[in-house]
Amino acid sequence: MKPRKAKDLRELTDEELNILLNESVETLSKQTFQHALKQLHDTSYLSILKQDIARINTILNERSRAKQNG
């Protein structure tokens, strides 16, 4: 899986980003568990998920700060 681009994420609404964030966190949790059980074959997927989560959080924080500052 390829990492999501920030440009593509910025086109989504806040609701869509929150849904995507929840799904990504859930997937990361499952993949981490599989990695612990030595069942995960593509370990680079973990870092991709972490980066996607960080990008989504950054965009959501930017938007909330923009709303606060007017």
Structural class: mainly alpha
Arithmetic mean of pLDDT:
95
Terminal CA distance reads 37 Å
Q: If classified by CATH, what would the architecture be?
A: Orthogonal Bundle
> What percent of residues adopt helix (DSSP H or I)?
over 70%
Q: What count of structural domains?
A: 1
| Low-pLDDT residue spans | none
Per DSSP, the total helix count is: 3
Could you outline the blueprint of secondary structure elements for this entry?
Blueprint: H1 6-10, H2 14-36, H3 44-69
Helix pairs in contact: 2-3
Task: Put the structure in a nutshell.
The protein has 70 residues and is an all-alpha fold.
List keywords for this structure.
single chain, 70 residues, mainly alpha, Helix Hairpins, 3 helices, elongated
How would you describe this structure to a colleague?
With 70 residues, the chain is mainly alpha-helical. It has a single domain, classed as Helix Hairpins. Helix content is 77%, strand content 0%. The chain is built from three helices and no strands. The longest helix is centred in the C-terminal third of the chain and has 26 residues. It is elongated and about 50 Å long. The model has no long low-confidence stretch (mean pLDDT 95).
